[in-house]
Amino acid sequence: MTVATAPAPPVTRPPSRGPARRGALRWLIPLGPALVLLVLFLAGPILWSLYIAFTNETLTGSASVNSQFVGFGNFVRLFGDPNFLNSFLLTFVFVIGSAVIGQNTLGLIIALLQRGRGRVTRSVVNGIVIAAWVVPEVVAAACWFSFLAEEGTLNVVLGISQEWLYTAPMVAVILANIWRGTAFSMLVYSAALSEVPADLVEAAAVDGAGPVRRLAHITLPLIRRSIMANLMLITLQTLASFGLIYALTGGGPGTASQTTPLYMYEQAFRYFEIGYGSAIALVMLVIGALFSLIYLRLIKVEDA
User: What membrane topology is annotated for this entry (predicted)?
Assistant: First the structure.
């Protein structure tokens, strides 16, 4: 008598990871040189600056050869330094006045005024605004120096004798940076406004909504992602602004326009305290990251 036995279940083998690995390598091999360059020229200097921020490294003297680890000594000195606190306050004023209020608002206004205009008008306005953006910072500083100097264009037009770069240096650098950087915000908002449905705006106008109400309740809500992205980009750009201020005022008179990037440059390359200057740079990096996180969080809240 034979007893029938059930056939053994088929042996299941885990899927081979070979194709997945080959697919990953197919992507990594072309990106390899770029990744190596990023590590060498981006991650490397950042990590090195992070290290020397905790040392007493200098450009000259014994500390340039045998630097010592000082822990948080540079940061304790930093937050107790009135010159750093003054530069941080000036940087905050510069970013708010130049980027958040100046470039952002003026760029939006120019983009709104160009909406619906002819191609020739838009080309002329875009050309004028973008021309200020593409000139080097040194050239822009020279233009504003000739405009605001004691014998400059502004005093000749007003019929007065006033040295604006000495009496109001922060106002001068804020205006110069707005003049130079507004083109970026204008281009961002021009692209965003082109995506706003024209029939929706026309329907609101037919219902009796005025220009202000259409802007507040239709246009701005529809381009809020572009607003947040633009604010994040111009904030980070303005936070690190150096060349324009250095060429226009040099941070003076005294420290009246010495923002944090200029103070960092002074400590690192004029007084040769590389460790202390790197600590300032690290604080600026953290501040920029915080600004980015805030804007990204606001974008996520808007999406939700």
Answer: Multi-pass membrane protein
Range of the domain at 240: 77-303
The whole-angstrom separation of Cα 123 and Cα 75 is 50
Judge whether residue 114 has pLDDT over 60.
yes
Give how many domains the chain has, as a whole number: 1
Q: How many CB atoms lie within 10 A of CB 137?
A: 18
Instruction: Identify the DSSP state of 59.
Output: S
Alpha-carbon dihedral of residues 255, 281, 225, 176, nearest 10 degrees?
30
Query: Looking at the domain assignment, is residue 229 inside a domain?
Result: yes
Given phi > 0 = left and psi -120 to 50 = alpha, else beta, which region is 146? alpha
Would residue 247 count as lying in a domain? yes
Please compute the mean of the pLDDT values over residues 126-132 and round it to a whole number: 88
Q: In the structure encoding, which two tokens stand for residue 116, read together?
A: 């619906």
Inter-residue contact 137 to 180 (CB < 8 Å): yes
Contact between 154 and 176 (Cβ < 8 Å): no
Global pTM exceeds 0.90: no
Query: What's the alpha-carbon Rg for the chain, to the nearest Å?
Result: 28
Helices (H), the chain: 18-38, 44-52, 73-79, 82-95, 104-114, 119-134, 137-148, 153-158, 164-167, 169-193, 198-206, 211-214, 220-222, 224-239, 243-248, 260-265, 274-303
Is 134 inside any structural domain? yes
Nearest CA-CA partner of 113 in 232, 228, 215: 215
Residue 205, classified by CB atoms within 10 Å of its CB into exposed (0-12), middle (13-18) or buried (19+), is middle
Q: What is the pLDDT of residues 176-219, one digit of tens each?
A: 999 999 999 999 999 999 888 888 888 888 888 888 888 888 88
| More confident: 144 or 10 | 144
Residue 20 lies in a domain: no
Which 3 state secondary structure label does DSSP give 64? helix
